[in-house]
């Protein structure tokens, strides 16, 4: 009897505390609207009490947030001209002091409490929210699928080759965001494809791998600073990919193929073994058809039974051995894990390529 | 401890803050003391937050103990109830500051939720009950303990600023040298209490 009473008291106490906190949360939540001014345009009403990232989304501006708004990826950087809350400890880690002084902030860390004026980089304003439907899924290598999506309704994805999109994944308790590079040609605006490597324990990669044709997903984009401009398309191009980092470079390569490879193009692709290498056959065919395109794969750990006769070792080692003509005029696009990108950048600089002509896209699992 | 009732409030405040400092005498709240004390401003903010939460939770826990647990002879549940009270208080304080004092909320920032698991907070509540302090004494004890903890973390942070420019034996690392600093400060604190009682 005594034990029952104790259990009852504890439960009642926990219940009272929870009710108190929940009730206070409702009561104390800041209500009302604030004026949000973006790039000196007319003000839009957004709800107070939320962070700037969802507030901007409310106003139709979708910022990239690969970390899902936790303040760790630093991709939602904007400028807060007036009315922002003070800098959070998270921001002092991500943003350098000079950037903070020039009013740079992370949108996910700024709380809307009053009328607020912000400056969003023009490149980020083009991003849209879209629904897409899976058209087909193809296994291209071990744990890698190429997923082809069609955009629903009258939406269009106007992206540049090399850019990425974000995929929303709704879990019961939170909404997760992940960034994936578009691997298809930028000339089709109604569809896009993604190369997805399944990561064991990865939330979104597993979700995408089990999608069936006809399934719908929510995406926003395009985003990303690493893309091929028309001007660069007329320079020699060096593409260096590590594993599934090939995805954005495939989009760049498609663009160059459409232009019939006006200048020399080298594609270096590093993978662990042959079963991790993908699109090998297609690239070999391209290299046979176009004299100015060279395909150079390298395997770091080829299996004996695979009968690999090509290059062995890490991709930056293969890059180092190659003589690339006209390298100082070239533009390099590098995508892969961070240590690989650092090694490749070092080799390219040593070969005489200016570091501002090396464009990289960090590709680390978040 | 019947005699605890007779302790003058000023002595209680002084002993809680200096001679029986919660961090240096009882080794409570050592984790944030070492991890946060790299920066003086953050240390001061953390110290202030700890003091405030300590004061509120000690009063709330005192009330729960004397008005609910003791009359119902459920004293053995004090740990469970105290932890729940502390968690709820921190949550409510966070909501309240966020709504009405955003500038203070931003100063406290990430430190407020961290305090939920600061054992100095729980320790002070339990000492107050164990020593059978009255409500006023409990509040004075909590205020003294909070101020003492804040003082210690600020002193350590100030000394650690020098370490950044001085040559410290490499094997001491950051934690080792911080423990040594804490030890020297502990000696100084106990020295002050001897001085006050005329012991030398």
Q: In terms of topology, how is this protein built?
A:
The complex is a heterodimer of chains A (366) and B (200).
Chain A: H1 2-28, E1 33-38, E2 44-47, H2 52-58, E3 77-82, H3 89-94, H4 97-101, E4 104-106, E5 116-119, H5 122-125, E6 128-141, E7 144-151, E8 164-170, E9 175-181, E10 191-197, H6 203-209, E11 216-223, E12 237-242, H7 246-258, E13 265-271, H8 280-289, E14 293-299, E15 311-312, H9 315-321, E16 331-336, H10 338-350, E17 358-362
Parallel strand pairs in A: 1-5, 12-13, 12-16, 13-14, 14-15, 16-17
Antiparallel strand pairs in A: 1-2, 3-4, 3-5, 6-7, 6-11, 7-10, 8-9, 8-11
Helix pairs in contact in A: 9-10
Chain B: H1 9-19, H2 30-35, H3 40-69, H4 78-100, H5 102-108, H6 111-114, H7 119-130, H8 135-163, H9 173-196
Helix pairs in contact in B: 1-8, 3-4, 3-7, 3-8, 4-5, 4-7, 7-8, 8-9
Characterize the structure shown.
The complex is a heterodimer of chains A (366) and B (200). In chain A, helix 8 (280-289) links the parallel strand 13 and strand 14 (293-299). Chain A has helices at 2-28, 52-58, 89-94, 97-101, 122-125, 203-209, 246-258, 280-289, 315-321, 338-350, and strands at 33-38, 44-47, 77-82, 104-106, 116-119, 128-141, 144-151, 164-170, 175-181, 191-197, 216-223, 237-242, 265-271, 293-299, 311-312, 331-336, 358-362. The model of chain A has no long low-confidence stretch (mean pLDDT 88). The longest helix of chain A is centred in the first third of the chain and has 27 residues, at 2-28. Chain A has 3 domains: 33-122, Ubiquitin-like (UB roll) (Roll), CATH 3.10.20.30; 126-223, Elongation Factor Tu (Ef-tu), domain 3; 232-362, 3-Layer(aba) Sandwich (Rossmann fold). Chain A is built from 10 helices and 17 strands. By secondary structure, chain A is an alpha/beta fold. Chain A is globular, with a radius of gyration of 24 Å. Chain A is 27% helix and 29% strand. Chain B is mainly alpha-helical and 200 residues long. Chain B has one domain (2-196). In chain B, 73% of the residues lie in helices and 0% in strands. Chain B contains 9 helices and no strands. Classes of the chains: A alpha/beta (366), B mainly alpha (200). Chain A binds chain B through residues 6, 9-10, 13-14, 17, 20-21, 24-25, 28-30, 85-86, 88-90, 111, 113, and chain B through 42, 72, 74, 77, 80-81, 84-85, 87-88, 91-92, 95-96, 98-100, 102-103, 106, 109-110.
